[in-house]
Amino acid sequence: MPHRARLLLIVRRGALALATSLLITLSGLMASGAARADALDDTLARFLADKFPESEQAIGELAAEAPPQAAAILEAMSENRLLFDPADRIVAYRNASGAVLNARTGETIADASGFRKVRVNNALRRAIEGATGSLTLAGSDPEKRIAAAEDVFKSRDAKAAPALKAQLARESDARAATALKLALAAIVAASDEASAADRLSAIETLRGRGDQDAENLIDAIDEKTADPEVKAAADSALASIRTRLMFWGAAQDLWYGLSASSVLLLAAIGLAITFGVMGVINMAHGEMVMLGAYATYVVQLLLPPSLQSWSLAFAIPLAFIVAALVGVAIERLVIRYLYSRPLETLLATWGVSLILQQAVRSLFGANNRQVTNPPFMSGSVHVGGLDITANRFWIIVLAIVVFVALQLVLRATSFGLQMRAVTQNRRMAAAMGISTAKIDMLAFALGSGVAGVAGVALSQIDNVSPNLGQGYIIDSFMVVVFGGVGNLWGTALGALMIGVANKILEPVIGAVQGQIVLLVVIILFIQRRPRGMFALKGRAVEA
Amino acid sequence: MSPQLDRIGLVFVVLLALAAVVVPVLALATPADSPFNIPPYLVQLLGKYLCYAILAVALDLVWGYCGILSLGHGAFFALGGYAMGMYLMRQIGTRGVYANPILPDFMVFLNWKALPVAWWGFDSFPYAMLMVALVPGLLALAFGWFAFRSRVTGVYLSIITQAMTFALFKEFFRNDFGFGGNNGLTDFKDLLGFPLQSSAAKAALFSASAIALILAYGAARLIIGSKYGKALTAVRDAESRMRFLGYRVENLKLFAFVVSAVMAGIAGALYVPQVGIINPSEFAPANSIEAAIWVAVGGRGTLVGAAIGAISVNFAKTWFTGAFPEFWLYGLGALFVLVTLFLPKGLLGLLLRPRRERAPTPETPALAIEEGADP
Amino acid sequence: MSLTKTILSRAAGALLGGALALGAAAAASAADDTIKIGILHSLSGTMAISETTLKDVMLMLIDEQNKKGGVLGKKLEAVVVDPASNWPLFAEKAKELIAKDKVSAVFGCWTSVSRKSVLPVFKELDSILFYPVQYEGEESERNVFYTGAAPNQQAIPAVDYLMSPEGGSVKRWVLEGTDYVYPRTTNKILEAYLKLKGVPASDIMINYTPFGFSDWQTEVSKIKAFGSAGKKTAVVSTINGDANVPFYKELGNAGIKATDIPVVAFSVGEEELAGLDTKPLVGHLAAWNYFESIDAPANKAFIDAWHTFTKKPNRTTNDPMEAHVIGFNMWVKAVEKAQSFAPDKVIDAMIGVAVPNLTGGLSTMMPNHHITKPVYIGEIQADGQLNAVWQTPGTLVAQEWSPYLEGSRDLIADWRKPMSCGNFNVKTGKCGG
Question: Are A512 and C252 within 8 A, CB to CB?
Fold first, then answer.
């Protein structure tokens, strides 16, 4: 018995000890949990002050402690969705779907009326970028890892180096690995006491990137080091980067020129049709462009949010129709009475343009209207050393599509055939049974409609205001006259030459001077070749 | 020119001469509360209309009688104005806000050290007056020499003249160009020693404008009545035939163009002291188009009509912008459309051949581009 | 066709309405107990974008004052004219307002050139102009009261903020402006100021573009390249009106974020932002003396009144509007102080008049005819508002003559007797430069 009892006792003691130890562990666990919770509470409490320095400290603490909800809180804060209730001392955030969640517990808060937004400024946004960088560096999404590495590349924050190295060691995605290496190189370049070996490898990595940032970072290394080997490597890398940059810089200028040309072409091509077919100067052409831009505005105003990203699909046909209808109205009411007096058409259509501008001002107000870029037309992409902004890219595409479509209309339809006939020899065309009056009207509708489509494009890059058209009318005339009347290829080439020349001149002699020089060149050119580059030959001119 | 038109011209000249005397008398000699008193602001306003009328007569000389629709006449007007403005700026002397005896104020606060070469000599009135005529004249000579020799005509000529004034518009906007940039030249003090603010100076400027208009009309009338003028009108009506007949068409046109530009320059020079500012917006293509519209409204190819058009459109503008500030553009726009549609001969056309108004009939568009060359 | 019809019917209605208004105006002017106030803001042309709102706010202020019983027992009557963004027409209309309509004061102008154009008119006919827009300074006239900011009330605090750690400790500067007098002068002042603060010339890039510039690709890429030199870079924008929308659109699409290269603008307010999708621009800055978003009872009351008056609950308010509110209230107070509408007496009574501004402070008319103003730096928000992130502790007195420009360093303005001078040279001791 004693033996048994002893055993029992041992068991009991053991159990007790076990229980105790369990208890201790448990309580310890609980205690540490409590400590963490306290820290998070303290951190969140800093937001209640709504002071920039306090908030910045809170961001630092969130990054350092990395509680699970940190990423969500920081993201919400950067987008101005972080809220606080000064009375109940609660910090919360609004999630993407609009619900307000308690930042501490994640519970939904039904009544968020007492909440105010936590103010954010640029310094805080930078701090958030840095903090998210270190939080997402080890994340599962390679895109986010790349973005995080890019953030470090920009901030050159030496504190991120260990995390970068750790991630680099286990990185599987090649692009992410490059980004990580670049971020490390940037840190090395910014540091004063990096070793020669580190610097050499940094130069190598940066050379691969080969852009302006890389050039500046290598330059920084070059200035800091005294090591001849590093200096030589830096100099050779710099030389190669500069050659590359020069090449890409020229390519970039060409791209800008192409983009400027596409805008000119869109604005001018409608004019090329009306001017070419009828020899009529329509000073209200710019207002057709303006109406197209306002059509885009109206579409965006009326479409439900779910269809917003498709707004341009609705805007382009609407703009075409509106501008074409107004064009027909002008043709029927004014221009057809003035065909034998083209110079006076200019004056009458100038009057029409004043009326249209004032009409839009009365209907929509004098202020600019807001037209947003749909998602596919926002932001930019890098191709090699080129920066290509999405809106400009799609405008170039639109210009090409419009040009091709017009060529098709002119070449492949009977209307086009008749229109060309009228352009080339009106009397003969009339003698052949073409109703020139009808063709005039339709050509005017087409030209005006295309101007409306141009307005959709311009609404993406310029003011949507009653004055929009005025800014493009003279340039459009220049393009049409320079290219040669009655020939769409001439208009296209004219737009291309003027646009590219403008963008090549701009960095050299400045934007203002560039425009003036071009105008003078065009004046001189027209004086040499009064009918433009591609003049109609034959009877059309001689008759 | 028809005798009927000449009679109207004579009446117009007599009225102007009368105004040149009566307006200053009424402005200066009658007490301010008298019903006959013309307040100084009105004198200035009328003087401004007369300057516009000179511009319109100048434009009508080339458009109405030579078929050149210049959309760049605002440039000649503005250049004349700038020459006068530069003289007036130099007259300010130490009365500028920085009291710099040489440099105009805008040069002082942009930290310029020396007077640009283009400004030299403008403290002398005769030199400035020479420039008023010379600068627009030379520009017209150079521009016309190129354009007419290359046979740029019709719509094309209109567009490149517009490009010319547009280029100047942009150039004068540049601060580095040295003419005050966007702000232009303002805050003038006196002209030939007479303070511009005084009623006497205003009345004198009005009379000068009226006399200048009479002279401009007289000169244009002389040109048109001469053998040369007949040739000019013939060029307007059938350029190619004149060329085949052995006339040097480009020289005929060039002479008219230069004379017209000088007239425009003089108009600008008279305009500036009366409105008190000259700045690049005078070069704006819209201003030149408006000038063409005055001519069309009054009656193209009548000289008197052009002057009447300028005065009446500007009077309407003054009245509309005050009375219907929100809606006057509708009225102005409609005026341009209706006049071109229903009054191809302008207001004077109504007077010359009073007959029932007809609705316009659609005209057959015939070889529009070529017609554009010889409208 | 339908649009044409609408336009025609509207135009017809407008003409009819205008004629009626004219008749009504004539009838009203027959009565002697009304006092006329001139409103000289462009309602058409390029400046209509900015100025139309100011006309509306003046109509509202006059309307409110009349509901309160007018001034000195007399009703106020607004005389609106349209100078059509045409500078000589500004002078003509000013003459018309003063000489023909006999207005007691004029509220008007936006651009410097329009102010310069009417200046001789106000001096000659001895009337009062209230000028509500921030401008380049270098002027102080007896007949003009400047209720907008001088460069030291806008540009210099903005640069100070960006140089501070809070603003990002900016070391490298792009001064980007439209080529006209306000940007030129402001940039001259800023350049001198930055150099004084030890910024080397190689870290300052100054660039000008034409009016209405719309293709910003090259300029934005230049800014990007200048900003990639490793030093914190900021852009100080004095870009004018129309050119701003394309500039910001290009900036947003080129991916220049406020955290990389912040842009601080002096001519971009709520009104301009309303024409833009501001989501890509969050964090870019503007410096003004008033923001619609400022949480003050006076501001809230003003915004409510504005929405009721215009019947548009979304219509924004902006800084020049506040300037007109202050200017108008000062005029009313000065008239009451002088017990007269005569410009001479009102001009003398104006100095020292203090009225509450809309941001909760007090603005005072100083002897240099400029007013004291607080300065706010605001960041653009996704909803198109500007949120103040920094403000001056109190109000600042305008330096109409910049101490950073060689020509104006020694000048002061004091319109109190006995000095009564707008450009007194303290070196020579003489009035007049």
Answer: no
Q: For residues B43 and B344, which has the higher predicted lDDT (pLDDT)?
A: B43
Cα A156 to Cα A151, B41, B138: the distances in Å are 8, 67, 62
Through-space distance between the first and last CA atoms of chain B, rounded to whole angstroms:
18
pLDDT for A186-209, tens place per residue? 888 888 888 888 888 888 888 888
Report the DSSP pairing between strands C411-414 and C421-425.
Answer: antiparallel
CB contact under 8 A, C408 and B41: no
Q: Is the pLDDT of residue C30 over 70?
A: no
Quickly list H helices, A279-341. Answer: 285-302, 311-333
Residues of chain C numbered 165-224 and touching chain A (CB < 8 Å) = 165-168, 179, 208-210, 212-215, 217-219, 221-222, 224
* B36-46 average pLDDT score: 88
Cα–Cα dist C276/C247, whole Å: 11
The reply to whether C295 touches chain A by the CB within 8 Å rule is no
Q: What is the rounded distance in angstroms from the CA atom of residue A337 to the CA atom of residue B341?
A: 7
How far is A354 from A107, CA to CA, in rounded Å? 60
> Domain residue spans in chain C?
34-149+296-373, 152-293+377-391
Yes or no, beta carbons of C7 and A359 under 8 Å apart: yes
Residue scoring higher pLDDT (B347 or C23): B347
Task: Show the domain range for B147.
Answer: 3-373
As given in the structure block, the two tokens for residue A403 are: 């040009």
A511 in contact with B, Cβ within 8 Å: no
Q: Is the pLDDT of residue A31 over 80?
A: no
Beta pairing, strands B194-195 & B190-191: antiparallel
Buried b (16+ CB within 10 A) or exposed e, A474-499: bbbbbbbbbbbbbbbebbbbbbbbbb
A39-43, A220-224, A534-538, C264-268: which has the minimum mean pLDDT?
A: A534-538
Partners of C181 on chain B (C-beta within 8 Å) are 106, 175, 181-183
Q: How far apart (Å, rounded) are the C-alpha atoms in residues B156 and C311? A: 49
Q: What is the pLDDT of residue C140?
A: 93
Tally of domains in chain B: 1
Q: Which tokens in the block code for residue C349?
A: 């009574």
What ranges make up the beta strands (E) of C112-228? 129-131, 144-146, 172-178, 204-209
Q: How many residues does chain B have?
A: 375
Nearest by CB: B150 against A342, A478, A528 = A528
Candidate from B266-275, C252-261, C320-329 with smallest mean pLDDT: C252-261
* A411, two tokens: 């070449």
Residue C32 has pLDDT above 70, yes or no: no
Region A299-311: mean pLDDT is: 89
Average the pLDDT over C133-138 and give the result. Answer: 92
Under CATH, which architecture does the C34-149+296-373 domain have?
A: 3-Layer(aba) Sandwich (3.40)
- Alpha carbon B321 to chain centroid distance? 21
Check A368 against C262: CB less than 8 A apart.
no
Chain B hits for C139, CB-CB cut-off 8 Å, are 97
Quick check: do C34-149+296-373 and C152-293+377-391 share a fold? Answer: yes
Asked whether the predicted pLDDT for residue C17 surpasses 50, the reply is no
At residue C9, does pLDDT exceed 80? no
Residues with Cβ within 8 Å of A28's Cβ and at least 6 positions away in sequence, in order, are none
Chain A CB contacts of B371 under 8 Å are 279, 340, 342
Q: Please give the CATH number for the structural domain made up of C152-293+377-391.
A: 3.40.50.2300
Mean pLDDT value across chain A = 84
Partners of A101 in the beta sheet? Answer: A93, A108
Kindly list the residues from chain B whose CB atom is less than 8 angstroms away from the CB atom of residue C411: 97-98
Pairing of strands C421-425, C129-131: unpaired
Can you tell me which residue has the tokens 């080397």? C200
